[in-house]
Amino acid sequence: MGQKINPLGFRLGTTQSHHSLWFAQPKKYSEGLEEDKKIRDCIKNYVQKNIRISSGMEGIARIEIQKRIDLIQIIIYMGFPKLLIEDKPRRVEELQMNVQKELNCVNRKLNIAITRISNPYGQPNILAEFIAGQLKNRVSFRKAMKKAIELTEQANTKGIQVQIAGRIDGKEIARVEWIREGRVPLQTIDAKIDYCSYTVRTIYGVLGIKIWIFVDEE
Fold this sequence. Notes:
This protein is of the alpha/beta class. 33% of the residues lie in helices and 31% in strands. Pfam families: Ribosomal_S3_C.
C-alpha cells in the first residue's frame, strides 16, 4: 500500500519552510523543542479562553517562532485577528506575560506580532476548526465537508481533500470518509500543499480531521 508521508515535511526546502528558526547545540536541542511546544500551546490556550465566537473558532493558521540569543520573536498568523486586536495593546501584553511566565525566561526578550491572512478559509487549520465546530453541533459530516469545500473555493485554491476518521455520526464501527475537489498532487514536490491534522472530541469519541489544500504550482 502507498505509505503516506506528511506533505509538509516532504516538501521542506522546496515549497515549504520551517515554522521554527533557531540554532541549538545537540545537547540543548530537546529543550528548545519543548520550549516551542510550550509557546504554541500557551498561545492556543490563551486564544481559546479569551475568544469565543459563535462557531468557536480560534482562527490561528500557524505560529512561527524565531529565536536569537537575547530575543524570541513570535509571529501569529491569524485569519480573524479582530478578535485579539479589539483592545489590542492590553490583549497582546497579557499574552506576552502569559508566555513569559510559562517559559520563565529572564535574560531574553519576548516579542509577539500578529499578522492577518488575506483569505482565512484557504488555511487548513482554520477549515479544520470550522469542521470540528460543525461536528460538535451534530451537523452531519457530509454537510460539514461540503460546506468547508465551498468556503475554500472562495479562497481560489486549486484543490482540496478532506478526510474524517473515527466514529462518524456516533456509529458503533469507526470508519474513514473522504472527499476531494479539484487536484491534490501529493507526489509532486513542486506543488505547494498545505496540510493539517486536527483532533476533535465529540460526545461519542474522538474524530480525526485531515485536510490537504493544493495552493498552486511553483
